[in-house]
Amino acid sequence: MITSSGIGRLISDPLSILYMLPGILIGMTVHEWAHAFAAYKLGDPTARNLGRLTLNPFAHIDLFGFLCLLFMGFGWAKPVPVNPNNFRNYKRDDILISLAGIAMNLITAFVFTFVLYIGFFKWGLYSNTAFQSIVLSIVTINLSLAVFNLIPVYPLDGSHVLDSLLMRRFPKALMFLHQYGRYILIALLITGIVSSVLGVVVNALFRLFAGAAIAVLG
Prior knowledge:
Elements: E1 2-3, H1 6-12, H2 14-41, H3 46-49, H4 63-72, E2 74-75, H5 90-121, H6 129-149, H7 157-166, H8 171-191, H9 193-217
Helix pairs in contact: 1-2, 2-5, 2-6, 5-6, 5-7, 5-9, 6-9, 7-8
């Protein structure tokens, strides 16, 4: 699930939505593919057997969640199905699968940060609005996906990590988060808390990645 500026941005600048589409498709696809790939490598072929071990975005996108992202400012993809009975070490494997999507979004953002600065320094595209907007959206959307999914609230990936680490110690608290997690998440989105925190962390990560790209490219 990620956030964008939604309807207001669409009205003020229709092209911005077109510029965002590659970032949305790439971000959602690599995130879900990474979940499926990690599950398969850890012994669970469920996602692969259902056609989810693919980089075809149509296999991962939930139409309603995709439209909500464009017009409401938040959205989601189809969750990757897993069968925990196939795992040798459920606690470890659940954490690895949950973090795989986040890691893939960070890797994708890092790679496209380099693409952005190669375009500026090597290809002379620093004044090309389309190039800058498309690549920058890929970077920021992937960073947003990574950071957002770290929030330890059900059904986000961070909740799986929290469950695996703390369920035995704090079962009642975690069951509460499972039962009311969706409502907590909606409240965080409506109040703007998520956007505020997301903006700070994403900007910090982008500066870090940009600094690395500039250092390497000179």
